[in-house]
Amino acid sequence: MPATATLSAPQKALQKMGLVRDIDLALHLPLRYEDETRIVKLRDAREGETVQFEGTVTDNHVAFRPRRQLVVTVDDGSDTCVLRFFSFYPSQQKALAVGNRVVVRGELKGGFMGWSMVHPSCRAAGGALPEALTPVYSTVASLPQAYLRKAVQSGLVRADLSETVPAELLPQLGLREAWTLRDALQFLHHPGPDVSLAALEDRSHPAWQRLKAEELLAQQLSQLESKRERDELRAPRLAAKAGGLHEQLLKALPFALTSAQRRVGEEIAADLGRPVPMHRLLQGDVGSGKTVVAALAAAVAIDPGWQCALMAPTEILAEQHFRKLIGWLEPLLTPRSLTVAWLTGGQKKKERTEMLERIASGEAALVVGTHAVIQEQVQFKRLALAIIDEQHRFGVAQRLALRGKMNEPGQEPHLLMMSATPIPRTLAMSYYADLDVSTLDELPPGRTPVITKVVADSRREEVVERIRSQLTEGRQVYWVCPLIEESEALDLTNATATHEALQAALPGVMVGLLHSRMPPAEKKAVMSLFAGAQMGVLVSTTVIEVGVDVPNASLMVIEHAERFGLSQLHQLRGRVGRGAAASACVLLYSPGENGRLGETARARLKAMAETNDGFEIARRDLEIRGPGEFLGARQSGAPLLRFADLATDTHLLQAARALAPLMLDRFPDDARRHVSRWLGGKSEYLKA
């Protein structure tokens, strides 16, 4: 590839799109197809159809009303059609001169004045028609279709498309028909005119199935290889001993563990007792008690003299963990002259310096904080366990940085990742195939199911009345808004205006305001007032999405609920129903200009009203959004599935999952070639 400075604009655009290798071009498949293989007569065409006809130009002039446009009339012998171009070049005018025979393709519109087309494609008549459908590729502004088609065709000719899946394993790929990779790609770039367009568009055609199966196999091989590589690494062997810190913590807890917490705790303890790094995902619905499981894991690491770090995405969540862990662990650590340290970006210099010294000396056995935990100046003495909460909110590089904080040469810390967004089975089988997954599928006793109501914004007064009745009963209320300040693009009522409106509507009630731009001390003060029940209503942006625990809050109002993602709505709903009182969540929505909600927003709100089950919510979320958005930052920089669809291709995923270990063991060279072809150098990202 020539030096970047000498590249033409289309070449730079190809690089930007990641179309660098011949195989990248060969795998850049069409978005759709145009049928240029046949000519129709205008008399046989129907309105709204995209048609191609051939005729003679009978008129060509520039009109100036209602706006400047080139108007060309073409007669095909059966009827005439008027072509309109609102932007045009002199060369175009010349090519469409009166008397020229041209082939025209576009969407046909009917009307009082006869047939017309706006900005159709036109070329001189003559020459053979194409024998295959014309591919239309996704592209960018500086990369014309004609240039991209040539580049893709060249890549297809030059690419090494030799089989990487050994012939004896092919039947196990889950395919109903055997297509070679070369045949499948040739066909999908240039399908014949008689092929079913529906089978091409819904990707059910056997050629598509071959590509999906190969892509899923590459992903499974990459994940399996990273899991095996990690099994070769070393980590401290941490065992809970009789009468040790783990046992002391269990006795000191003011509640009994659920059977799910006990089971998951044992799975984690077994991992920590092995000399290879744990790489476990702890998933559980909102309020299932993940923090106490993390505390028990921390106790196992701290007992033999190691350190544990817990990183959370927001200061509010980190502080919530900090308070709980201090309450549970500090009384047990004090006799050992150990402490719990706290690190965030907004700390005063003196406090921060003191914390850094405690961490470096090993006095801080447990370190809780935000991204500040992975900053360069943070030096651990003996880090053995890293816990990452809401792991999908962190990028790959951030997780790798935390793993790199261990001082022992040749060793890695154990890694426990936590998520309150349960992961659907197909995602666990694909993107999380290299992880061991523990699931908390039981809520602690005393949790009340939350009733969810979807209410139009026009009934706002009724919602305020409901708040009054909750406050009268001594309960507290959250009111969540999507934005802090007005935006021209999103005409939303901001948190400040809502706060003022509720203050006016609820005289004598303390109504607080919380948003991400407030100084940390101010946020802390507001949360303390709400947690201490002095504040009746808390108006907030999504900073209270996770971790905030106020059992007395029994009503959650989410304004402009149609703007939120499904997992975010579920997380917010999880802030209520934490005590014994019956709790409710009101999803206030504003219909669009046409008085209706969009399809996606409607599907989200319907799912919220129908189920409280986080696993069902996650399954529907995956259906609505697809894996790319669902995964968040886990795959930052890594390829998401381009061809396979986890909702419809489960049989191919299962076949690839079963085939991967067999291929890696028996045909390791083929397996590596296969991963390289499909993932290039990006498979490293799958290892975080």
UniProtKB/TrEMBL annotation:
**What biological-process GO terms show up in the record?**
DNA recombination; DNA repair
According to its UniProt record, the EC number is 5.6.2.4
Species of origin reads Ramlibacter henchirensis
Coiled-coil regions, chain positions = none
Q: Which GO terms describe its molecular function?
A: 3'-5' DNA helicase activity; ATP binding; ATP hydrolysis activity; DNA binding
Give the catalytic activity: Couples ATP hydrolysis with the unwinding of duplex DNA by translocating in the 3'-5' direction; ATP + H2O = ADP + phosphate + H(+)
Positions of the Helicase ATP-binding domain: 271-440
Q: Which residues are in the Helicase C-terminal domain? A: 459-623
Q: Name one Pfam family in it.
A: DEAD
Please name the top-level EC class of this enzyme: isomerase
Q: Does the keyword Signal apply?
A: no
Q: Which SUPFAM superfamilies match?
A: Nucleic acid-binding proteins (SSF50249), P-loop containing nucleoside triphosphate hydrolases (SSF52540)
Q: What name appears for this protein in its UniProt entry?
A: ATP-dependent DNA helicase RecG
Record keyword Isomerase present: yes
Q: Which InterPro entries does this UniProt record tie to the protein? A: ATP-dep_DNA_helicase_RecG, DEAD/DEAH_box_helicase_dom, Helicase_ATP-bd, Helicase_C-like, NA-bd_OB-fold, P-loop_NTPase, RecG/Mfd, RecG_dom3_C
Summarizing the function annotation, the protein's role is: Plays a critical role in recombination and DNA repair. Helps process Holliday junction intermediates to mature products by catalyzing branch migration. Has replication fork regression activity, unwinds stalled or blocked replication forks to make a HJ that can be resolved. Has a DNA unwinding activity characteristic of a DNA helicase with 3'-5' polarity.
